[in-house]
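TASK: fixed-backbone design
INPUT:
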């Protein structure tokens, strides 16, 4: 089963997620914060704090949680023609 082995913040807004199969995901959180009100608490931060992971999700203490399934779904929606 695919799991998150590590999560970090790269440029203050991009999640750097390492998966158990060795793949890395760079996930821009700005779009997520624009479209999902549950991430509004992170929007006001100039630099996101380092997230934690339990293997199934990336989360911030007393903040939102982003499940691996949701990350993969959002990545599949992105493409060169996305508006």
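OUTPUT:
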């Amino acid at each position: 089963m695919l799991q998150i082995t590590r999560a970090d913040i790269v440029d203050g807004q991009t999640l750097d997620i390492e998966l158990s199969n060795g793949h890395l995901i760079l996930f821009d959180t700005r779009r997520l914060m624009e479209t999902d009100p549950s991430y509004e608490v992170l929007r006001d931060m100039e630099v996101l704090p380092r997230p934690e992971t339990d293997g199934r999700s990336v989360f911030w203490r007393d903040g939102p949680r982003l499940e691996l399934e949701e990350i993969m779904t959002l990545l599949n929606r992105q493409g060169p023609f996305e508006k």
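COMMENT: The mean pLDDT is 86.
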